[in-house]
Amino acid sequence: MRPASARACCGHLTASALGSHPDANQKGPDVTEPAHVIAFDAAKIAPRITETSDPAIVDAPYRAQSWRHFEAADRAALAGIWEAEPHLERCQCDYDELCHILEGTVRLTDKAGRSRVFAAGETFVVSAGFEGTWENLTPVRKVFFILGKP
After folding, report:
1. In total, how many domains does the chain have?
2. In sequence order, what are the residues at sequence separation of 6 or more whose Cβ sits closer than 8 angstroms to the Cβ of residue 89?
3. What is the mean pLDDT of each run of 10 residues along the chain (150 residues)?
4. Is residue 29 part of a domain?
5. pTM of the model
């Protein structure tokens, strides 16, 4: 069993460990976005690079990049873009995550062995309580929105 502050899936921190990230909502002097509107422009923020190597989570280490465009720690909400190479990791999610696959193919398999494959253009939610595996069958890039328990 992983501690509550461990990553839950895809290199994301569990909802209880969500905290402010210095790159979230970063704005430059030339930003003319309407108030409370956040464009997902990866060129405007530095990627957050995570390496997952814990043998309780993965059999083989993998590296991921994410661009956190929105964070609201008081509501345990987080949104951005995530990408990683093929890998398989064991997940125990304590948050809800909406995923829209931009590139690649993933397979989610629950602890009972039921699985579903999602490809580019598909959208789905992994709800809190999911236990199973997330497998990038190819390099994957996705948009995500995570909502945890504040």
Report:
1. 1
2. 9, 10, 52, 57, 58, 62, 133, 134, 135
3. 50 52 47 85 90 94 96 95 97 97 99 99 98 98 95
4. no
5. 0.79
